[in-house]
Design a protein that fits this description.
Elements: H1 3-8, H2 12-29, E1 36-40, E2 55-60, E3 66-67, E4 80-86, H3 95-105, E5 106-117, H4 122-132, H5 149-158, E6 161-169, H6 178-183, H7 187-193, E7 200-207, H8 232-239
Parallel strand pairs: 1-2, 1-4, 2-3, 4-5
Antiparallel strand pairs: 5-7, 6-7
């Protein structure tokens, strides 16, 4: 996690964000399988806690199992089955390169799960106004950048990813005051009536490789060669 995100997540609104994003990742990773997974950023949360993948690593610019920037991961090509990128695009100087790096380190049929602030929401509006105000205190989530869902999907499609699912969360007003935040909580109504305008999006995408076809054995058609099958009479002969 970058220093900017860490500052924001200390507040009441940050606690709400962490709770909502933890739920998003718990639901996303539970049915994804493989051998190696990496969570990049937001390290105070265990976003892989519901994953069944045995080898899980964490990384960030200054902590974790190793330190790196999201556009330049020190990992071999095709080495990860699952990559989590919470708000990585929001704070990356090279967001498209971050996605290209995700495509490089993922195995064919591997998954990337990423979250970010939805610009078409009240959270996106506050970020826009906060950045336009040139406020001196920019050390928070509002100092990041926002990308539309359609743009991110286009980037992923160009890299050969298949969009598996898209979800939204965070329907409370983006205010730090805990009392007003609870009074203006619209989570239930938001999910029912305007789900696509949640403050945070979550995209799950699968890496596809053109011309590659994974062949699984059809065990129902596997038959033993009759020459190698021992009959009852042969068994009797062997027992004499």
């Amino acid at each position: 996690m970058t220093e900017n995100q860490q500052y924001f997540l200390n507040g009441a609104l940050g606690e709400y964000l962490k709770s909502e994003e933890q739920a998003l990742y718990d639901a996303a990773v539970t049915d994804l399988f493989g051998f190696n997974a990496l969570q990049y950023g937001m390290l105070e949360l265990d976003l892989l806690r519901e994953s069944r993948i045995p080898y899980c690593l964490k990384a960030d610019v200054g902590s974790g199992n190793f330190q790196a920037e999201s556009p330049f991961l020190p990992l071999p090509a095709s080495s990860l089955d699952l990559l989590l990128l919470p708000h990585a695009l929001d704070f990356s100087d090279f967001p498209q390169q971050t996605l290209r790096e995700a495509e490089r380190v993922l195995v064919p049929e591997g998954y990337v799960v990423l979250t970010g602030v939805n610009p078409l929401s009240l959270w996106g509006l506050r970020r826009f106004l906060q950045r336009k105000s040139n406020c001196s205190n920019q050390q928070n989530l509002w100092a990041g950048q926002s990308f539309g869902i359609l743009r991110i999907k286009d980037w992923l499609n160009l890299l050969g990813f298949e969009i598996v699912s898209t979800h939204f969360s965070c329907y409370r007003m983006p205010v730090q005051n805990q009392i007003w935040s609870k009074r203006l909580a619209l989570d239930v109504l938001g999910r029912r009536c305007y789900s696509h305008f949640g403050g945070v999006y979550c995209i799950v995408a699968k890496k596809r490789v053109l011309g590659m076809r994974i062949i699984k054995p059809n065990w129902s058609k596997v038959k033993l060669n009759s020459k190698f099958v021992t009959t009852t009479s042969q068994k009797d002969e062997l027992c004499k």
